[in-house]
Amino acid sequence: MRAFLLGLLIVSLALVGCAGGGAKTDTVKIGWFGPETGDSALWGQAELNTVQMMVADYNAAGGIQVGNKKMKVELVGYDDKGDSTEAVNVAKRLVSQDKVVAVVGPQGSGEAIPVAPIFNDAKVPYVASTATNPKVTVTESGAVNAFAFRACFIDPYQGKATAFAAFKNLGKTKAAIFMTIDDPYSTGLAQYFKEAFEQLGGKVVAEVSYTSGEKDFRAPLTKIKAASPDVIFIPAYYNDVALIAKQARDLGIKQLLLGGDGWPSDNLIQLAGNALEGCYFINHLDMDGPEAKPMRDEYKAKYNKNAELNSYMVHDSLLMVVDAIQRAKSIKSVDIQKALETCDIQGITGHIKIGPQHDPVGKTAWLIKIIGPDMKFQEKVAAE
User: Fold this and answer.
1) How many Cβ atoms are within 10 Å of 75's Cβ, its own excluded?
2) What pLDDT does 378 receive?
3) How far apart are CA 146 and CA 330, in angstroms?
4) DSSP SS3 for 208
5) Distance (Å, rounded) from C-alpha 298 to C-alpha 315?
6) pLDDT for position 198
7) What pLDDT score does 9 carry?
8) How many whole angstroms separate alpha carbon 355 and alpha carbon 342?
9) If DSSP codes are grouped into helix, strand and coil, which group holds residue 73?
10) Domains of the chain, CATH where assigned
């Protein structure tokens, strides 16, 4: 029910913005879904804020150019609660009930993978924001999900980049891995990190795991401590990372902690305190950099809070959809899908050129260091 009401609210806001109460034929209907509630709600709310802000900007400028006319954007949004079953229900609703022409989201691999058949069958393209697992766009058999796209780099690259950062940038040779066993993002990233780290000449001395929802990590951390690594890779999300870091320090574990793109959030430092001081993570961009500044400033002015990583990623996801509509000169979903296959644009998060497996090719990972309350860009990682 919450999701349905949210969707109606967003549509109503979009229609109010139409000049002169324009008819639906003068609008292009785009969907969004993500976690407005649940453990990942912070990121879902940041995404929703961003797409609403962008849609307001597009409509204030008269809409987006479609052929020889401008069309207002009508946004339909739903809360998937960060749950795969709910994500499937939402996807069905977007294509069958709301008849959207394209979708932005979801953010998590656990939600983006199971919705692929829904969008493929309906022939409606979707652009995931931060779903980095390879199975989002490519099936187990190696077939490309024709209507699935993403704005982010994928875990094989991210795992390799993190391994390069640990071994080459930071000079670490013995790693422990602490992953979330029931999360495909975490297990996939752990796998790719291990493969790359050992190929470089490093050694993974411990692999331990926990189940989503756990709060006491002392037992597995004690196993890691006994293995004496010089770096601990934690492919998890910021809320778990903060607890893990604090408990690790309480146990006397002083080694460097290293993470992926599940770490960056203002809440990470607030929750972890100084437990992550001097630690590093891989990110999709420098959120304090000049490329991000215009959107960062607009977001802060509008919502009186800092943009999250997902804000920048969903910005580029929607940018991809709008670019595809404009180049296709059409609001037919199949035309938008074809245009997305030839996407080649500059986004906030870097140059986005879609490759044959519907992933951006050539995107660069950024190594970020936590210093006090700030997350400071250190260097790009040449994971080649």
Assistant:
1) 27
2) 56
3) 18
4) strand
5) 12
6) 98
7) 39
8) 8
9) strand
10) 2-153+290-353 (3.40.50.2300), 155-283+365-381 (3.40.50.2300)
pTM, two decimal places: 0.87
Backbone φ and ψ for 177, nearest 5 degrees, come out as: -120, 130
Residue in the structure block whose two tokens are 């245009």: 339
Flag residues of the chain having pLDDT under 70: 1-25, 373-384
Q: Which two tokens stand for residue 26?
A: 């003068």
Instruction: Measure the CA–CA gap between 194 and 201, rounded to whole angstroms.
Output: 11
- Read off the tokens for 14: 């979009």
pLDDT at 371: 85
- Alpha helix (H) residue ranges in 201-237: 218-227
Angle, CA 26 vertex, CA 22 and CA 32 arms, to 5°? 105
Torsion over CA of 165, 170, 175 and 176, rounded to 10 degrees?
Answer: -80
Q: What's the order of all strands across the beta sheet hosting 69-79?
A: 64-66, 69-79, 27-34, 102-104, 126-128, 148-150
The full DSSP string for 249-315 is: HHTT--SEEEE-TT---HHHHHHHTTTTTT-EEEESS-TTSTTTHHHHHHHHHHHSSPPPHHHHHHH
Give the list of residues 6+ apart from residue 75 with CB closer than 8 angstroms, or none: 10, 11, 13, 14, 29, 30, 31, 32, 51, 52, 55
Beta bridge partners of 39: none
Q: Of 304, 279, 280, which Cα lies nearest the Cα of 49? A: 304
